[in-house]
Amino acid sequence: MSLAIVHSRAQVGVLAPPVLIEAHLANGLPTLTLVGLPEATVKESKDRVRSAIVNSRLEFPQRRITLNLAPADLPKDGGRFDLAIALGLLAANGQFTQAALDKVECLGELALSGAVRPVQGVLPAALAARDAGRALVVPKANAEEACMASGLEVYAADNLLELVGHFSGQQPLMPYQPNGLLLNPRPYPDLSEVQGQLAAKRALLVAAAGAHNLLFTGPPGTGKTLLASRLPGLLPPLDEREALEVAAIQSVASPKPLDCWPQRPFRHPHHSASGPALVGGGSRPTPGEITLAHHGVLFLDELPEFERRVLEVLREPLESGEIVVARARDRVRFPARFQLVAAMNPCPCGYLGDPTGRCRCSSELVQRYRNKLSGPLLDRIDLHLTVAREATALSPDSEDGPDSATVARQVAITRERQQQRQGCANAFLDLPGLRRHCRLSTEDERWLEHACERLTLSLRAAHRLLKVARTLADLEEVEDIRREHLAEALQYRPAGQE
């Protein structure tokens, strides 16, 4: 047969759209033409494929070759199509039948020797192949990752010759059996290691229980970073859907997507990070920090040191849970349902309000420092807490609060209550859900309206305050939001945000 078709997958963000590699052999002078909007790395594949076939002691067709990567309007890049192109050429040249390729999809880069090298973004392709009802052929180094898509038949190969033997029926490969993915998850740092700071630990509990955003303000050395790093250990474990989403993002962004799987991510970008570093970008859009923190925690230390225009890009994903990166040719949508935890000093020197009186910052300097953060951004942070400096040496009978395991159990019970009631964490309640699940008595509603007017809180801030109060009620396992829940939630809101 002079025409062969092989199924493969491209990579567009965290999606894996289908690509058909069509190989046609015709009479004429030996040439090879590659069409279908290939990028430079794909154009180079014809030389890698030729050398791989020859060095595998297989026959390279000496005919007029046309390779089409369909659909033609989808950009293709990377070496992930090498294996599919080689198999298409061999099938068109009669090395094995087209029927052997109909129920499989192929991914892999070829070395000049014929070895099959790993590629990134295998898990999204594996999930898509499973949904399409096909098996997946991948390099052996990607086999464990592909097996994360349960119910998918995976074939792993070290070289091109093995696959020719498999598809020709001379030496069939057995489906790959995974070795197990949940080997040694890294332990989270424990909350009990943080001395004192009971109020901050309470705020961490509330933030974890309702998926609320949190801002710590305090002088250097008070434990803001330590506290933030403990939050992932308080959150419920990822369910299967969330774990696969996190792994798919890591598959696209990292050559080692199984590291720390299936733990919640904790991203800690430096304050010199640019806007594209946070939201993603590039001529070929790649995930940024907010997408890498999907279903996890994004920690921004020294918040005012970030450029203001960089911080402003967080406003939309904090509300919508996704980010759209638009380029001349592409519009790529990345998930970004993360929990923001930030830390900052109260003034440029960091010691405003310290009992030692070390701060020498003028009021104008302090105001200029705080004005680096816009009101709309601060409005989207549910919990604001001032972290005071603790005594240098704690007495032996001091109370440091519970450990992470104890708090995590309480958080898990509270989150389960929210899932059963509304299907999401309290922080993600929409307006109809807010009206349905955060009802107040007439007296408490008037009290809250008066409090919001006195503190000049925006309507968004008032809604977030209600969500925090709902979480406080859930922690006490009561159905109705009470006045004490509203009062505590108000303590976490600074006045004057508009």
- What spatial order of strands do you see in the largest sheet? 11-14-17-10-18
| Basic shape | elongated
Unreliable stretches, pLDDT < 50, 5 or more residues?
none
Name of the CATH architecture of the largest domain: 3-Layer(aba) Sandwich
Explain this structure to me?
Belongs to the Mg-chelatase subunits D/I family. ComM subfamily. This is YifB family Mg chelatase-like AAA ATPase. With 498 residues, this protein is of the alpha/beta class. It has 3 domains: 3-167, Ribosomal Protein S5, domain 2 (2-Layer Sandwich); 191-389 and 399-424, P-loop containing nucleotide triphosphate hydrolases (Rossmann fold, 3-Layer(aba) Sandwich), CATH 3.40.50.300; 429-498, Orthogonal Bundle (Helicase, Ruva Protein, domain 3), CATH 1.10.8. Helix content is 36%, strand content 16%. Strands 11-14-17-10-18 form a 5-stranded parallel sheet. The termini are far apart. 42% of the residues are buried.
Task: Produce a short descriptive summary.
The protein is α/β, with parallel strands linked by helices and 498 residues long. The chain has helices spanning 40-43, 45-55, 82-92, 122-132, 143-146, 160-167, 198-210, 224-230, 240-253, 275-279, 289-292, 308-312, 315-320, 363-370, 375-379, 404-422, 431-437, 442-454, 459-475, 483-491, and strands spanning 3-9, 18-26, 31-35, 64-70, 104-106, 109-110, 116-117, 135-139, 154-157, 214-217, 266-267, 280-281, 286-287, 297-300, 322-326, 331-335, 339-344, 383-386.
